[in-house]
Amino acid sequence: MSKVITASNFEAEVLKADKPVLVDFHATWCGPCKMLAPIIAELEAARDDFYVGKIDIDDDPELARRYGIQAVPTLLLFKDGAVVNQSVGYVGKEVLEDMLNA
Q1: Which residues pair with 87 in a beta bridge?
Q2: Are the beta carbons of 57 and 69 closer than 8 angstroms?
């Protein structure tokens, strides 16, 4: 089950996580974000080697600024507190699997 990430829990939930974290920067008004959400949920349900964190850029613009988010959806994959992979815009399941497996 994905976690809502905010500035107050970002360090504990993302930077200090014991597994990789796929952070989904999204917005409620974003059509491609809504199309991507079920794909992320499907991967999350099928695998236990990563967490999903969701950041609404309208609710937490500081985190979006900190990571230079210019478009949604943007996915950042964090491992050991560092960004190791990213994707901008709508992508298919295969691209997300490749991103997680890299």
Answers
A1: 75
A2: yes
- Classify domain 3-101 by CATH architecture: 3-Layer(aba) Sandwich (3.40)
Residues taking part in catalysis? 30, 33
Query: For every one of its 102 residues, what pLDDT tens digit does the chain have, with 9 covering 90 and above?
Result: 799 999 999 999 999 999 999 999 999 999 999 999 999 999 999 999 999 999 999 999 999 999 999 999 999 999 999 999 999 999 999 999 999 998
Segments making up each domain of the chain, as ranges? 3-101
Please state the pTM of the whole predicted model: 0.96
83 touches 17 (CB < 8 A): no
